[in-house]
Amino acid sequence: MENDILIDFKFTGRDKPRFSELFLITGQEHPKFPARNKIFAQLEPLGFEQLEDFFGILNGEETGDDVLVWLFPMINGEEALQSSGPFDAIRLSYSVLRNDPANISLLQECFDAILQLPDITADFDNNTIKDFAPIQQKADEIIAYWRQNQVEPGSAQSLLIEEEEEDWEEDEDWEEEADWEEDDEKEVN
């Protein structure tokens, strides 16, 4: 089951934000690059901090994940690493499994605040959305699934559950053991 909620906010205006504009969500100006406008400064009350190339709201509680909500700058549908922009979107990422169910209200607060920015649309599950209802519905489904499996989201047990790694699924063509056994036999002879 997919446990993360990903919401992409696409910038529809002509002037796309750069890292220096996004940095204003931390409540500070970037020390090296001045912002061209102050639009993202209104998101400062959400509590985002710079975490490497991205932004996140840190968890002040002992339960749940270390970062409650992530914000990633995006270029061409991909999270932009070490880029100054301009960005065509930002992505909010929230793990329903790894966070206390009450924290969904923080994601909704972020959603509502970002959607108030000019020239922006919100996409969730390949659909443009205007309100938080589809996101809440998906979160409720994920919470119900894990509770049905005797795992409380945000608990210590939930943090031990490994996320599925689709890239590392077993490759049917790969026969590592047979190859290694042949090599071992040649070395012995």
Q: How does this structure look, described?
A:
26% of the residues lie in helices and 22% in strands. Strand 2 (49-51) and strand 3 (54-58) form a beta hairpin. Strands 1, 2, 3, 4, 5, 6, 7 and 8 form an eight-stranded antiparallel sheet that branches. The model is unreliable at 165-189 (pLDDT under 50). The protein is built from five helices and eight strands. It has helices at residues 19-22, 104-115, 133-148, 156-159, 176-188, and strands at residues 4-11, 49-51, 54-58, 67-75, 78-79, 89-95, 120-124, 127-129. The protein is globular. The termini are far apart. With 189 residues, the chain is an alpha+beta fold. The longest helix is centred in the last third of the chain and has 16 residues, at 133-148.
Q: Count all strands and give the number.
A: 8
| Unreliable sequence segments | 165-189
Average pLDDT for all residues: 87
Main sheet specs = 8 strands, antiparallel
Fraction in beta strands: 15-25%
Helix content: 25-40%
Structural class: alpha+beta
Radius of gyration: 21 Å
First-residue to last-residue Cα separation: 49 Å
What's the total helix number? Answer: 5
Taken from the alpha-carbon principal axes, the silhouette is: globular
The ordered H/E elements are EHEEEEEHEEHHH
From the structure above, extract its key features.
alpha+beta, 5 helices, 26% helix, 22% strand
SSE blueprint and pairings:
Elements: E1 4-11, H1 19-22, E2 49-51, E3 54-58, E4 67-75, E5 78-79, E6 89-95, H2 104-115, E7 120-124, E8 127-129, H3 133-148, H4 156-159, H5 176-188
Antiparallel strand pairs: 1-6, 1-7, 2-3, 3-4, 4-5, 4-6, 7-8
